[in-house]
Amino acid sequence: MLVPIIAYYAIEIQDSWRLFVILCAVPCLISLIAGMKFVPESPRWLIMKGRNEEALDILRRAAMVNGKDPQELFPPGYTIRTEVAQEEASYKELFKPKWRRLTLILFVVWMGFALCYYGTIMAVTRIFDESNNGNNGDDNVAAAFDYSAIFISSSAEAIGTTLAIAMVDRIGRIPTIVGSYLWGGITVFSMCFFVEQLGRPALITISFLARICEMIASCTIWILTAELFSTEIRSTGHSATNAVSRLGGFLSPYLIAGTIPFRTIAIIFLAIHLIAAFFASRLPETNGVELGKAATTDHKNMDPISQYETSGTELI
User: Fold this and answer.
1) 46, 60, 113, 264: which could form a disulfide with 70 (CB 3.0–4.6 Å)?
2) What does the pLDDT look like over 204-236, one tens digit per residue?
3) 20 neighbors 143 (Cβ within 8 angstroms)
4) What is the number of alpha carbons within 13 Å of residue 6 lying toward its C-beta?
């Protein structure tokens, strides 16, 4: 949401793309400092370093946040078996029989997520490029964006995040992801395919809805991936899928290039959304399933997560 505001000031008023880049970096630096100060360290990492009491303090605070009695879960004198925390996982583990199918499906879903998410943002920007209507790709024409329209569409991400929080536990991870991909594909297709027939209010409305859907899918796939992998391979699996998504983000600009007709873009992105939705539907549901067990166990009749009694070892 800050980007169109910064762009209006830096590019439209100051006519400096360098100032735009510098100002866009400021929130990232603030996030870095805030993260270092306020985000708790990984208990698993602390235990690997022999800092067990610090790890227990973090787990007790987490228990309080979740309405549990920390002294009951982690009483004085409680110890955590450190041999579990010493387990390491390389990227090769992701392609062993236990994890191979899940890894490959997640690669496709994350690639689709990045293509859809970043592609939608760039398509919206191109649609509201008033200098050339986003069609001729002439680099010699100064950009003149409809900043208010872009800002309105970007504000949809706040609503998308809120809806993701509301839906993810009520209807489940997989229905949320599949539904948001399907509706995202429909809205992006409509926005691009009928760009010349629709007026500004309609385009703003559809772009707003499209970005809501993309944000819901984005939020939920991050949650689902962390829940699918077991503790010893979670960070490895999550980083690998995230790396694959960067490839999708890298490819997005080539699919939204100024010389490609909007109707072609509409068909391409509808297909990408459908592929992402299909592969997401092949992933196991993690709602109400013990962390890290959904991918390797049949959970059709499993009790909700609140009914699990989890030991300190399993938490780490």
Assistant:
1) 60
2) 999 999 999 999 999 999 999 999 988 878 889
3) no
4) 15
Question: For 108, phi and psi rounded to 5 degrees?
Answer: -65, -45
183 lies in some domain: yes
Q: Which of 111, 275, 249 is nearest to 184 (CA)?
A: 275
**Co-location of 110 and 50 in the same domain:** no
For helices 231-255 and 262-281, angle between their N-to-C axes, nearest 10 degrees: 160
Q: Which domain holds residue 212?
A: 91-281
Q: Which of 51, 86, 121 is the last residue of a domain?
A: 86
List the one residue out of 308, 313, 312 whose CA is nearest residue 288: 308
The residue out of 66, 86, 106 marking a domain boundary is: 86
86-138 pLDDT, tens per residue?
A: 455 678 888 988 899 999 999 999 999 999 999 999 999 999 986 655 554 45
H/E run at residue 142: none
Tell me the H-state helices in the chain. 2-7, 17-38, 43-48, 52-65, 70-73, 82-85, 100-127, 147-154, 156-168, 173-193, 200-228, 231-255, 262-281, 312-315
